[in-house]
Design a protein that fits this description.
7 helices; mainly alpha; 7% strand; globular
């Protein structure tokens, strides 16, 4: 199958999955979420070997004691932002956004970026990030069959695009 056909198939699967939660999915250069417009942004190209994904895998294992496909978790994490937004006050959001900027600056100025797990952990421990990840993990635990079926279909397509 041609790369463009694989991309089209992956887009359709991801967009249908996100729409089943009542949200819109749009392809972008990274995973992120727009809670004001209920949009989940996703990328078709996300390496398990990126520095942040290696750290996130460790964080998920250390914090939630579970091993899950990071790509699937990334999609659900962004949905989790939309599902948990009501649990955050404006003060929580403002505080987390300030802390995100501080963490980002600390990472940009770090001399040894390979040893910055503490910064990644600080980011994922922020209330908004933790709640989204916790929601995603709980969704996977309570919808294992649905998640496994979705991932079984999507995984070979994503892997073929690498």
């Amino acid at each position: 199958m041609k790369k463009t056909d694989l991309e089209r198939k992956a887009r359709k699967m991801i967009e249908d999955f996100v729409e089943s939660f009542g949200y819109v999915a749009e392809e972008d250069v990274e995973f992120m979420c727009d809670t004001e417009c209920d949009i989940v942004n996703y990328t078709l190209y996300d390496s398990d070997t990126s520095r942040s994904n290696i750290a996130w895998k460790k964080y998920i294992n250390d914090t939630f004691h579970i091993t899950v496909p990071l790509y699937l978790l990334s999609i659900l994490h962004e949905i989790g932002h939309l599902e948990t937004a009501y649990q955050l006050s404006q003060e929580d959001v403002d505080s987390d956004n300030i802390d995100k900027e501080i963490i980002k600056l600390a990472f940009e100025n770090a001399l040894d970026k390979d040893n910055c797990y503490h910064l990644f952990k600080a980011y994922w421990d922020l209330k908004m990030e933790y709640l989204a990840t916790e929601w995603a993990i709980n969704f996977i635990k309570h919808n294992t069959e649905e998640c496994a079926t979705f991932w079984r279909k999507l995984k070979p397509i994503i892997k073929a695009l690498e």
